[in-house]
Every structure is written in structure tokens, then in C-alpha cells.
């Protein structure tokens, strides 16, 4: 699979090494296959034997779990497994060898135990590779670790379920294909409901996302459909088709994606000129299609709301992440002492069409620069 562009850092997503840290703290809660997958991803390798050095428990006690212990090492992690091996409770050698290992360990020598583990490690590695080969989800994961230029068969099937298997379509997404592969099940379900969209975005961003349907939007009336009076007038029947102005409000024209409440740092990362909002709009557009309009409404937590007359609030800066922007991250008080930040600020609403137009202009400018 072709390498995706770097994904934007999520808002409050769990750290990348969270499964690895949990494996080291609570190894007995992991199955053998899950342990191998976590360590392969941590080592960025598609070979189980390159990421794990398999060890057997030095005794004959019944193994209460597949994974007994995980030990850090310089190159590979030592993992004591109870599922198979030459010796131990699940060993294939006669019991005498396991008893002899216990005796040598009591004498302070680990040579025999390490030697037999060295011989049996290859067989356990083959077992782990077989589990990877015949599980579709694991096969796709291993293909990503290999970073082959051609997409693997499993990824192609998942992209087909999402409707993005046609060449040159998926690479256009700002998010890359990884979110599509991860949420292929939600993309494949029909109809695609607001509940599924909210669940997907909540998991992807790592924070609460509420889908407000029928939020409505003002739609511009085409010049040939506006009301005109006179002999050559049109759309001038009161109560039927006449309308004042050049816009009309449509309750079903747009839905709202309310995100948060967010901290100031996370809120600043959801502004229109930041990469994460552009990726979010791209993912939602892939889910809802080109017909449905939507807007993103990041909500700033009340504790982080600042007003314009706060000391230091209007300090000019070249950094777009910290400079004040009225209506986005800074608010004016009604009068002195009347502004009490007791509620979350949900005033910032960014229309998806405007963000997509900005992306198109940036892409065109980048293409022109490369051409020159």
C-alpha cells in the first residue's frame, strides 16, 4: 500500500504506545495473537521473530494466560508465553527436560533454559506468522508494515466497501486511506445515519461529537429565480412564490457537527487554517457524499474563554495559533464587568464548502508552483 500523508495529530486520542504500555503493565490480559500484533507495530516490522523473543516459563504450573510476562530488551522484547514451546507446561519434550531446567535454575545457571528456548523460538515464530497469514484483519495490518508500493488484497476489498477503490480517488482525501480502512464497516452500512457518523468522529477525534440535524442554512437564490415586479416580472405571487431578498433559509440544507467542549490548545487546532479541520471535513465528505451540506462547530470550554479586554488577550503575534481572532477565539464584552465566562463558547461555525474551496485554492497554487 502506498504510504499515506502524515495524519494530523488527533485532539485527545490515546497515545500511540498506549497498547504497548498496557501490555507491559498487564500482560496476562492479552492473548498471544494480540501481544504479537502490538509488539510488531511497536517495532515497525512484519516479522514476529524480529519483534519478539519467545520464552517459556521455567516450571510446570498451569499457564493462567497466553502471555505470562513481558521483559524489555535492547533489540527485541522477551515474552514468556504459555501456549507452546519445547519445555514448560505446554512443552513437547518429555517432562524430564522441564524438571532439569528447574534444577539448573535453582543452581544459578540459566544456560540450559536459554538454549532450549533458542531452539524452540523459531517454531513459536512460525506459529505467530501462521496466525497473521490466515486472519484477514492481521494480513492487512502486516501489509501496512511492509509498506509495499502496491495495495494488498484485503485493503482493496475494504476500500471497495467504502466506495473508494477506484484508482486516484482515495489518495485525494486529506485524511489518507487509513481512516477509511479502519471504519470500513461504518462506510459499508446503508443508510449512513447521523448516529454512525457521530460514533465514527468521536472515536477518530477522541472527544465528544454531536450531530445536529436540520441545523439549516441561508441559500443564495439564483438571479433568474428572484422575485421581480412589473410587466416582465416573475415569482411575484404573494403567499405562493414571492420572496424578499436574495437569500432563503432552508432547515434541511445543512447539519452541524458540534465538537467538544475543547481546551484552548485543542480548540486552536480546529481553526480553518489548521490541518486537522481540513482532514475532518474530508473524512465527513467521504461519508455523507457531495450532496449534503454541513458545518463544523468546535466548542471552547468555559474555563478557556477569554475576552478582548483581558490583559494580554490582544497581543499581536505572527503565530496564527495564538493571535486573537474575533468570533473564533476572542470575544468582546457587552459592557464593563458584564462578561462572565460561565458557559461554553459555541459561536465558531466553519462551513465545509468554504474549507473545501480553500483546500482547492491551496492545491491549485501548489500545482502551479511545481509547474513553474
From TrEMBL:
InterPro entries for the chain: T6SS_TssG-like
Q: Where is this region: Disordered?
A: 1-22
Q: Record's Pfam families?
A: T6SS_TssG
Tell me which PANTHER family the record gives: CYTOPLASMIC PROTEIN, PTHR35564
What is the protein named? Type VI secretion protein
Amino acid at each position: 500500500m502506498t504510504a499515506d500523508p502524515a495524519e494530523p495529530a488527533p485532539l485527545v486520542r490515546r497515545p500511540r504506545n498506549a497498547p504497548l504500555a498496557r501490555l507491559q503493565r498487564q500482560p496476562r490480559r492479552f492473548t498471544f495473537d494480540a501481544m504479537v500484533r502490538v509488539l510488531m507495530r511497536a517495532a515497525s516490522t512484519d516479522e514476529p521473530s524480529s519483534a519478539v523473543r519467545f520464552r517459556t516459563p521455567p516450571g510446570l504450573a498451569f499457564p493462567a494466560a497466553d502471555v505470562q510476562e513481558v521483559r524489555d530488551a535492547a533489540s527485541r522484547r522477551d515474552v514468556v508465553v504459555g501456549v507452546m514451546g519445547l519445555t514448560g507446561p505446554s512443552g513437547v519434550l518429555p517432562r524430564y527436560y522441564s524438571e532439569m531446567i528447574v534444577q539448573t535454575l535453582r543452581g544459578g545457571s540459566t544456560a540450559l533454559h536459554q538454549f532450549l528456548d533458542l531452539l524452540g523460538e523459531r517454531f513459536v515464530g512460525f506459529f505467530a506468522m501462521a496466525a497473521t497469514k490466515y486472519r484477514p484483519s492481521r494480513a492487512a495490518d502486516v501489509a501496512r508494515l511492509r509498506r509495499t508500493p502496491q495495495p494488498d488484497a484485503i485493503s482493496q476489498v475494504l476500500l471497495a466497501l467504502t466506495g473508494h477503490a477506484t484508482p486516484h480517488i482515495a489518495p485525494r482525501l486529506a485524511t489518507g486511506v487509513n481512516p477509511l480502512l479502519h471504519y470500513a464497516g461504518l462506510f459499508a452500512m446503508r443508510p449512513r445515519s447521523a448516529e454512525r457518523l457521530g460514533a465514527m468522529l468521536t472515536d477518530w477525534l477522541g472527544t465528544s461529537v454531536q450531530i445536529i440535524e436540520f441545523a439549516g442554512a441561508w441559500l443564495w437564490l439564483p438571479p433568474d429565480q428572484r422575485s421581480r415586479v412589473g410587466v416582465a416580472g416573475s415569482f411575484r405571487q404573494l403567499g405562493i412564490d414571492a420572496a424578499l431578498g436574495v437569500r432563503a433559509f432552508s432547515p434541511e440544507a445543512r447539519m452541524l457537527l458540534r465538537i467538544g467542549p475543547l481546551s484552548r490548545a485543542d480548540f486552536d487546532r480546529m481553526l480553518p487554517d489548521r490541518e486537522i479541520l481540513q482532514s475532518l471535513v474530508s473524512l465527513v465528505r467521504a461519508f455523507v457524499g457531495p450532496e449534503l451540506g454541513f458545518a463544523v462547530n468546535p466548542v471552547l470550554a468555559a474555563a478557556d474563554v477569554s475576552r478582548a479586554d483581558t490583559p494580554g488577550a490582544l497581543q499581536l503575534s505572527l503565530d496564527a495559533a495564538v493571535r486573537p481572532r474575533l468570533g473564533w477565539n476572542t470575544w468582546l464584552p457587552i459592557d464593563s464587568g458584564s462578561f462572565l465566562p460561565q458557559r461554553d463558547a459555541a459561536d465558531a461555525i466553519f462551513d465545509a464548502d468554504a474549507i473545501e474551496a480553500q483546500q482547492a485554492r491551496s492545491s491549485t497554487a501548489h500545482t502551479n508552483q511545481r509547474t513553474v
